[in-house]
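As described in the Methods, two query proteins were run sequentially through the folding procedure within a single session, without resetting any intermediate state between them. The first query and its resulting structure tokens are shown here.
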Amino acid sequence: MAAALAELERVGSDFSRMEAEVADLKVELAVKDAKIQEQAEEIARLKGLAPRPRFKGKPSGMEAATSKPLGGRKTGRKPGRGSKRDKLAVTAEIKLKALDVPPGSRFKGYEDVTVQDLRIQVAVTRYRRERWETPDGERIVADLPVGIVGGFGPQLRQFIAAAHFQGQVTSERLTSLLNGMGLDISKRQVVRFLSQGLEALIAEDQAVLEAGLETADWITVDDTSARHARKDEFTTQFGDDRFTVFRTGASKSRRRFLYDLQCGRSEFVLDEEALGYMQRLHMAEPLISKLRAHSCKRFVSEAAFKAHLQALGLGALKVLPDPIAVATEGALWAAVKEQGHLDGTVIVSDGAGQFRVADHALCWVHAERLIHKLQPTNVAHRQAVELIRTLIWWFYRDLKAYKCSPDPKRARTMRARFDRIFTRKTGFILLDKQLRRLHRHKAELLRVLDRPEIPLHTNGSENDIRAVVTKRRISGGTVSQAGKTARDTMLGLMKTCAKLKVSFYQLLGDRFGIQDTPNVPSLPHLVRLAAA
């Protein structure tokens, strides 16, 4: 009898182990299927075939549902927004006389009607520039007004830039529209306006990123694919509720992310901050000692830094982790800290590995999505998923309430409650595996308990980066480096203007030198003011 029971326990243990292995294989198979589907769609896109229709499941709705008051109570009538016409600045006033007024009528004043209109017309101006010749034979010609480039005025550049980047009108349609209005301009000239002569705006966009990183309590980050020169690249978004910046590169590695955080610089620093970073990534201690002992601590180019590492023999080592990669990340991170960027700033992301630097927090919407996407196959598993999702929604609602009134005692209670939820054994292996995975990230999911000012999600980044996705779908990719830089710069400035309540159209007019256009202050200055 004892032998039979022992055999039965062994069989049960083997069955549990096999069931767990099957669950792991299902997860791996799902990941591989997703990659295969992504590659198939990319092949179809390159061949010009129609994309496969996507099944769009209903989103979890956690954020919207937990924003409603408990018990369905109404919080009061929403105030009306008022008449928008009352806020308009009247530029002209015309008095209209009434016809066929009978004799004996009394004048009762005016009845006002505010009408908005737009005047677009082609204007061809001949500038007659005085020419003089000095006694020494030097030729002097009167200067053209500011903003004229290649025989075209600044208002045309303003319209083309706003229509393309804000209105998402392609260069082909813009050319056709302008030609139809009577303007003699080629597509090549339109593309030239969209990608060249933007040096001042590019510098302002770079300064916006630096001002934002230096003054931000938190930033949210995200990335998406981008085509450039017929190759796959990636656009990374940086931002908070004051600014947005986009940067596109050939990879979405952590090194690329740290490069972008330097705001245009390319510096490498081997100080104690860098060496500590290398220790956290388990770099061999003898290699760290070799870097510490050398007198060279600062490098102003990637080539010089890599030559230094090669001279120390790090390139000849075939070990894991790669010493070159770890040393590069550490030196870049130390340079970011030395420049004063991300000083006390929390980075909130969807969990992608390249964003796990500095003080990091995770998006709760992406975390709950792991549970929402599970597909239970029986009633017990469905009930387990629904129970866990309900507990997470309640916990998320209480986190949002905690942000409004932080309390240390309540924070301790929330941490204990988090453990109870994410260490439950439901009997659904895939669900239990996801719960254990989320529990391992407890510190990043509960970072808000120590920093209640940070957001619980990356919805801001999702909204910002949608502009890049829309641009990609309408206009495709970029070909030249100037075009890629212009796309990142103009979309970033457009989003920053929206957050600062500044007109992007007026910004373009002011920066292109249009006379009598409203003055728009420096965006980096406004970003810093918004942080005060």
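Immediately afterward, the second query was submitted; its sequence and tokens are:
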Amino acid sequence: MMIPSRARAPLFAAILLAPICWRSAVAAPPSASPAPLLLQEKSEKETLADARAALTAKDPQKAADLITAFLTRAVGTVDLEDVLGQALLQLGRKDEAAHHFELALKLVGDVEAPQKALKANLLRADPLYTRRSALMLNITKNLLENCQKLYETGHTERALSILTSLEPIASGAIKKSIVELATKIRAAKEAVNLDASGSDASSEGARPLVKLEGKHYHFESYLDQNETQRVSDVMDDIFNYYVQIYFDNDATRVNSQKPTIRILATHDDMMKEWPGEQRPGLGGWWSPSEWKVTCYDTGSESGSRDQMLMTLYHEASHNFMTMLAKGGNVPAWINEGTASFFEGATAMSDRKVLWPEAADGRLRALQYQLTGGRGPTVAEVLSFNEPGSYPGEYYSYGWGLVYFLQQYEDPVTLEYVFRPLYSTYRETIARTGAEPMELFKQTFLVPSAPGGAMELDAWVARWRNWILNEVYPLNHEGARRRDLRVDKAKMYIAAADKAKAEKTPKVPELELLTRALGHLEFIRKTIDGEDKIDPDLVVLQADVLERMGRPQGTAAVLEEVLDKADRGDTTLEPERYEELEKRLTKLDTKNQPLRLAKTRARNFANQAIKLMEQYQASETPMTLTSYEVSTLFADALDSKPLKEQAETLRLKARDAGLLHGALYRIGGRPSAWVTIFDNTEDKFDPGEGVLSIGGVRPVGRIFNAIPLSGEYELRCKLGRVGEISRTTSQGVVFSGTPTAQWFVAAIDGRGQLVVRRYEKGGSELGVKVDKLASLVAKDESPDFSVHVYADDRIVIKVGARPPVELKLEEPLPKTAYIGVFAKNGRTELSGTVLEVFP
């Protein structure tokens, strides 16, 4: 078995330089004497010789103590882990012994010769080893076959995801095949990205520029290729709604020039291209002179791109108003109100866009204004006729007016009775530039208009009542809103049944089904939420989609629900699961290999859960081993129940003192060492044996290959080289980032401990001095460690002196790195080890 880095330290995303080594607690019982400090100075060869001699002398506790002491300052090797496992096995500590035999096997890799003895010992420690190895073999063999079929049917991303998860539990020929297929997919993917990307780069330099030609838009995007394609598909679909509303479905009126949609990586990147005054809340803009929409990836801030899509829906609609106006002016309530109307659009799983719902932010603002007597009057909004946009408080009113004109239904026929008048008003105002309020009266306040309101106050009262008593409850009336929407959906489905039987229905069947679908999707995504699944609602939604002639949409809904069940995010009865899966298979034969892979993974996860239960039910519960094995299975199968089980076992193992941290040897790879200091440093040497840096002014480097969060400890032997003066300071960076302040622990020229903060450039921000029990002599090279806790506490140990505990006044970065520091001298760190606690 091989312990993946994700299982041990899930915070790490980078490729690490040194082997990872979990250490179990092997401290001597109270009756035994602790290993003397002198033993820590011995080499690996000497430690192994002494430990083996202890085993021969029938003293396994001494052997365990010797190797445990050595591993506090070094990373484990095959021989160290093997001998420690043998000692623990003789002590009857089978769970911990199995852990160390596993580590030895991981370090051996696929070299067969040394595996036999290690596996024999592992089987003595873990009687279930053969069973779980057989399950791992079955998993990797079957899912590899699925990945090959996924690759052949074009599901390359999913195949690569599964292959990456399988590699840590695979071995031998199967592992070789997994690596070969994954390499082939990555190579093809890189070739596509290179072809699709330009040379431009964001300010972060982290993402390439993707250029893509969609059906209706040209994209310049810092999203990846797949996400850019998804946005392109969504914008192509909403394009049809633009044509419907602005040009009454006459696509011949659309300008042949494709607009450009430019998606920047961050808000700061976007604002560098904004030509006006700085506006922190700006989400994007339409530039008629450039024929371009500019926005940014809101996922860089919130983790969600929904806000970015809403901005695109709004700004891209201005392109149509530009075409409609042909250089003329249109009143802001029509221009911004129509653009805001599209903010309520929703992209479904099949990348089709639903006709816009109420834009929730606009609706909430409007309800607040209408019920509190705030904001402008409708007359003021309708009369606003200045170039450009109108004040911010007008936007909700403009949206509400357009939403009413688009969405108000005749109570009997369900027709959208105001849409023809909206179209007439919009066309006339764009063509003639008429005074907006006067034209409104001529269009809407006439006897032939729906409702026959002759005065603006009466019309506004009707509008206000509809917004507050019909629209707002559908979004904000607590639990009632779900019932209201279910009733609406069923009403539309019944009306669609009736329309299907009529030769010339007032509202076509497809239109009524589309309205029902909007309510069902809102319930499923917004009210119930992503994790709650109502199977009856899903089946109803699938029925509507299938009836609309959207098999891909039906498949996407079923696929999403089954995926959640596969991961354990929701629960489906076996009969219901089988029903939905069979229905999906009939709809989407192309995705059959994908479903088979997910079904197999789900079944394997159930087998793994049962195996973990057997571990816990054994005479000697294997808490540490079962934690590590369940983590392997959870990662390989992407199973939420297994992940929850692994987390429970992790806490039990740590509470029992069985689980310590993952060890990393620090050093090497010069490109991974960065600085915030502008000061000139002496030669920097990132050697794995001795890590050194020197300078007159403050200098330092951090190792950015290992991002850290939570609890960790940096240990080393601190060498203070050269002449030591009053201003000398030599130590470590225990928390720092390439762009923010650094936290340094060091010994100053007097031999006292200091903790300092430095900002980018090298200026000192603050210093804290704590009295050590005794000063560090100039010729002393003490063992030095800094233990960092998640609550911004640190514990520093210098040699054999009592530890110093500090509570930092400034919060540490959420993700940070460690490194080396010097001021007016040279620092040499030897045996530098980082331990990250699970």
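The domain at 5-127+618-664 is CATH 1.25.40 (Serine Threonine Protein Phosphatase 5, Tetratricopeptide repeat). We note this only descriptively and draw no conclusion about the first query from it.
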